[in-house]
Protein 1
Amino acid sequence: MRFATKAIHAGQEPEPRTGSVIVPIYMTSTYSQAVGKEGYEYSRTKNPTRDALESNLAALEDGRYGFAFASGMAAITTVMTLLRKGDHVVVADDVYGGTHRLFRQIMEGYGISFDFVDFTTMPSVEAAIQDNTRMLWAETPTNPLLKVVDLRALGKLGRATDVMTVVDSTFATPYLQRPLDYGADIVVHSTTKYLGGHSDVVGGAVVTSDDGVSERLRFSQNAMGAVPSPFDCFLVLRGTKTLPLRMDRHCENASEVARFLQGRKEVAKVHYPGLGYHPQHDIAKEQMRAFGGMVSFVLSDEAKAEAFLKALRLIILGESLGGVESLIEHPASMTHASIPKEEREARGISRGLIRFSVGCEDVEDLLEDLERALQASHA
Ligand SMILES: *Cc1c(COP(=O)(O)O)cnc(C)c1O
């Protein structure tokens, strides 16, 4: 099956008793052991709605095993259980703020150490690997600067050094890139974003093809218990059916928005992997189907950021991303505020930086809103 067909059908046979085309929301905590089959005992361990979502996600990522969680952070926390006290992780320096916070402020307390390095140059990743390094943690494209990591080079480095590679592929979705095909061991998603796609659910996922890793994750998923409700699984599963349709529109709109912003004098810089001058444009072109729906840009006058955001009428000021509605935010004071100021600025997250999750609206309406707000804030 090809991608759009898998998005609609994988993991979802019509229900045998009634023929229901849509997988029912099995709102049950337990199962009769007199009647039950297929190992259903308790819903933290196994639930048919979750099974359908997990199979669907695995198929979309070209993986063998999918695991669904109550949030992206729950997925990431559960992946952390693959590590032991004394282990070391090399992490991309531009990861999601919540990932940074989990690693630095929680996991370090459990005796796991982290080094944050620039994953756009593989030699610096390789140089950071120590005897006790067990995991390379990448994100691509990154948040909020949309740097792109060379997945083939990362997979190769992981194999050569026998270190597990994990890719948070939330910004790209499996429609645009499939890290397992490039040798990654584990893919992580916040399904809250494009996979859910409608800003109405919080969820996470992990996909792998490795038998050993999958067994340990299955154990941890049940033992830790950070599982999604059947209703949440239904919502994500409804989202994945239209993923290709939505992503095509997100990508088209984002390209137009990036081109528009690039031509404005109020904008000093636009970060978008689809722009020819993006430092990893060629890698993005090679490993991604299209360049995604996220655009970041820096205002020439960083003091105008607040006024600009307030002047928008259609585009909603808010955290999160990947929904059909356009969402815009200010990383320095919102999503990345938990990173210490010096570190944040060293990473290029300046006060003038704006992150835009370009939605599926008519692009002309988005451009008009941006233009009006740029003019109003710079008058
Ligand atoms: C949102 C996000 C997460 C965390 O996911 P939640 O669903 O909010 O817990 C992790 N990684 C990336 C790249 C994200 O955008």
Protein 2
Amino acid sequence: MTDRKAQLAANLAQVEERIVSSCVAAGRKREEVTLIVVTKTYPASDVRILHELGVRHVAENRDQDAAPKATACADLSLTWHFVGQLQTNKVRSVTGYADVVQSVDRAKLVTALSAAAVRGERELGCLIQVALDAESGERGERGGVAPDGVEELAAAIGEAPGLRLDGLMTVAPLAGEYAGRQRAAFDRLMEISSRLRAGHPAANMVSAGMSGDLEDAVAAGATHVRVGTAVLGVRPRLG
Ligand SMILES: *Cc1c(COP(=O)(O)O)cnc(C)c1O
């Protein structure tokens, strides 16, 4: 085993242990939580090692980095999640490799993703990114729609050819009433998810929790956690 593989294996084992303990504490089954490894800023060779170690879900946040990486790993059976703020001029590229876009936060993006999915003859999973700290009608600093905008976006995705509404995603806010209160933030996301599922029963994915707060996300009921640093190490640059 190479040094890098041994390091990633050890880190993955630690993250797995944290997920298992959180599931036990919450009375949940381990299978209810999917680990997505956020590979942004790390090379395709790491993605390859992660695949060898059993990882099947990876996430990226910048198309410039993700597109070549996905191409280099096209032979691997991986589900690619796009989790970054997405400009409409990148949609066509992202639709070429992403299976799920977790950062859908405006109607214009829905239209663009739908057109690209139809053109590419694919079905694209969509999560609505919720900005828990955004005021009504506004978007979050790091993307996301205010909670009261979820229903309208859900309807748009539900009607858009080529798109499949899979659920919700959030990043715990750094400011506002939820700053430093991850558990409360994720509980709020679960409430919004319950309301969404009443009208869209298949939209049952809840993507929440990162390296620092995955326990809170599992406790609240998240189905997917997105972990970067705890698996790959501290990123060499901001991403
Ligand atoms: C980078 C990133 C993560 C992973 O964050 P870590 O703290 O490194 O685990 C999760 N979600 C999104 C949207 C990200 O951009």
